[in-house]
Amino acid sequence: MKLDVIKLDGGKAGTLDLDEALFGLEPRADILHRVVRWQRNNAQAGTHKVKTRSEVSYSTKKIYRQKGTGGARHGSRKAPIFRKGGIYKGPTPRSHGHELTKKFRKLGLKHALSAKAGSGNLVILEDAKLAEAKTAFLAKAIKEQGWKRVLIIDGAEIDANFKAAAANIAGVDILPTMGANVYDILKRDTLVLTRSAVEALEARLK
User: Residues 66-109: pLDDT tens digits?
Assistant: First the structure.
């Protein structure tokens, strides 16, 4: 698969051969769903907590006499049926994460890249470098390209000026190659890869 390589100002910078094993697959929704679910579950804090009847603060004195009231027999205001009593079988802190093999995670990333390439929402950029950290210049370039919700993936490290310039632009996210993941790729409308990002991804996913 061949794609044109562009510069940030919109100029042409040649073409690039993309590996069909990474960018030419038929995207499978079931694989993408499983990987995204794994990511979101691992990101969930799991700190939800309620107080049981042993943890709520009430006197342990019997609330009324055992017999003669015409009501049910109760010994504690901590019982779950009372207002502000303990919660029965409520949530407790736990991990929501589950295992997913490295092989399957790699496969999911390949299908995410292929989904963007197949839909025409993949752009190859010569490089993501700026001489100065100027937000106005970068915002104008992104607007001219027609990118609204875009994820830019660079090589091993992100250029400091480019990162600083993009920090205040809404809808623009930047990741190094090792941060590339299925959820962030699918969440954005356009995926922009630099030449170095393509090389690193091909080396990482072989």
Answer: 999 998 999 999 999 999 999 999 999 999 999 999 999 999 99
Confidence (pTM): 0.81
For residue 178, pLDDT over 90 is answered with yes
- CB of 194 closer than 8 Å to CB of 154: yes
Measuring CA to CA, how many Å separate 28 from each of 1, 40, 44, 108?
Answer: 19, 19, 25, 9
Domain positions in the chain: 2-45+96-205, 50-90
Q: Assign a CATH topology to domain 2-45+96-205.
A: Ribosomal Protein L4; Chain: A; (3.40.1370)
Q: CA 120, CA 118: separation in Å to the nearest integer?
A: 6
Q: Residue 136 burial by CB count (10 A; 0-12/13-18/19+): exposed, middle or buried?
A: exposed
